[in-house]
Design brief:
The complex is a heterodimer of chains A (221) and B (198). Chain A is of the alpha+beta class. Chain A is 29% helix and 15% strand. Chain A has seven helices and five strands, in the order H-H-H-H-H-E-E-H-E-H-E-E. In chain A, helix 1 packs parallel to helix 4. Chain B has a single domain, classed as Nitrile Hydratase, Chain A, CATH 3.90.330.10. At the A-B interface, helix 1, helix 2, helix 3, helix 4 and helix 5 of A face helix 1, helix 2, helix 7, helix 8 and helix 9 of B. Strand 4 of chain A pairs parallel with strand 3 of chain B.
């Protein structure tokens, strides 16, 4: 899914910020939004981090950007909670308006409709019986695919050639787990790409490593 | 694939956060006291001081450094650090010839157990979009100008693997106690956007 979240290589964001000393949470609501999101994420159908990331990337661009990092967490938490009918659409805004004294109708709590889903273990790492398909040093290509749903295959890698540099532990496949459709654990590989393969002959020279799930890759014959 | 627009008539996030907390407490889904504990943990306990201890130990204990580079997660666990966003941590070592830097172009994945929650620059769209495309220029804008012959290696954390940079130990620090060394190691040096000053 091509989304606002898939920012790698995109233009128009300006200069990189100079790091400054800053509190962990700039405003107190950010800490509340952080804790609310982490806790409520676990109240849908297990603690599904992939579903949360998918909620983030489904946000309209304005909602993704307007209130910064914890603003988007807040919006994604609300989206997950309304998706599973834990909250009624509009309930949060209605309560916020009521709290500031406006006359407003607040929707009743709906009957929850959560996905019938359970992860097989805590965390994202899993073991798989088969050996890894690729070995360190193998030449691979990131598939040129455009899934409609969640994926962790960065758009800027599609179709490009790289080399397997590290075999990482197998993990739950985000593409299905995010949709509550199964864990499908796979090996993950740190794939090394030459910057000129990605960005052309005039690009800076550097090496880029990205962790890619096995099904994102094909052998480069 | 549905995309919903919950906040077309935008209200301040502070008000919406307060409203969401009330609704979830009424629903019996969150407990405000538990939230307070979460917030305090990440404000006070889990932060870059953890990572700095790991780095200082690696600088002073060659066998530890070997374990850290071979099996980051378990070596970090030896110092008592682990937990969410740290299931599998890979440590990469900066040298006079190679400079590593970490980014998450898709969201803001970051090794919480050793560095805490990510700083605002790490979450900035400019950093996320450009670090995978023009790292030398981005580092220079952030205050780190690397010699032209230093090779840059960028790690885009797109899976559950988390990366920690082991920065170079500054010259002239031989014999300093490990606590003093740890105090020199900043968050930014462990992501790779700064070098440790002497």
């Amino acid at each position: 899914m091509e989304t606002i979240a898939d920012m790698g290589g995109t233009r128009g964001w300006g200069r990189a910020p100079v790091p400054v000393d800053e509190p962990v949470f700039a405003e107190s609501w950010e800490g509340r939004a952080f804790a609310l999101t982490l806790l409520s994420m676990g109240r849908v159908s297990g603690r599904n981090l992939d579903a949360f990331r998918h909620a983030l990337e489904r946000l309209p661009r304005d909602d993704y950007l307007a209130d910064g990092y914890y603003g988007r967490w807040l919006n994604a938490a609300e989206l997950m909670l309304t998706d599973s009918a834990i909250l009624a659409p509009g309930a949060v805004n209605a309560r916020a308006r009521a709290n500031r004294g406006e006359q407003t109708d607040q929707p009743a709590f709906p009957e929850p409709n959560k996905p019938d889903y359970q992860n097989t273990a805590a965390g994202q790492l899993r073991t798989v019986a088969e050996p890894p398909r690729f070995a360190v040093g193998d030449r691979v290509r990131a598939k040129d695919i455009h899934p409609e749903g969640h994926t962790r295959l960065c758009g800027y890698l599609r179709g490009h050639r790289g080399v397997i540099e590290l075999i990482q532990p197998a993990a739950v496949l985000p593409d299905t787990n995010a949709h509550f459709l199964g864990e499908n654990p796979q090996y993950v590989y740190a794939v090394g790409f030459d910057s000129h393969e990605l960005w052309g002959p005039d690009a800076e020279s550097f090496r880029l490593h990205v962790d890619l799930f096995e099904s994102y890759l094909e052998a480069d014959e | 694939m549905t995309t919903s627009a919950p906040n077309r008539d935008r209200l301040p996030p502070s008000l919406r956060t307060e409203a969401l907390e009330q609704l979830l407490v009424e629903r019996g889904l969150v407990d405000s006291a538990v939230m307070d504990k979460f917030i305090a943990t990440y404000e006070n306990d889990v932060g870059p001081l953890n990572g700095a201890q790991v780095v200082a130990k690696a600088w002073t204990d060659p066998e530890y450094k070997e374990r850290l580079l071979a099996e980051g997660t378990s070596a970090i666990k030896e110092l008592g650090f682990g937990g969410p966003q740290g299931e599998h941590i890979v440590v990469v070592e900066n040298t006079p010839d190679v400079h590593h830097v970490v980014v998450c172009s898709l969201c803001s994945c970051y090794p919480w157990p050793v560095l805490g929650l990510p700083p605002s620059w790490y979450k900035d769209p400019a950093y996320r979009s450009r670090m995978v495309r023009e790292p030398r220029a981005v580092l220079a804008e952030m205050g780190l100008t690397l010699p032209a012959d230093v090779e840059i290696k960028v790690w885009d954390s797109s899976s559950e693997v988390r990366y920690l940079v082991l920065p170079q130990r500054p010259a002239g620090t031989e014999g300093r106690p490990v606590e003093e060394l740890a105090a020199m190691v900043t968050r930014d040096t462990m992501v790779g956007v700064a070098e440790v000053g002497s």
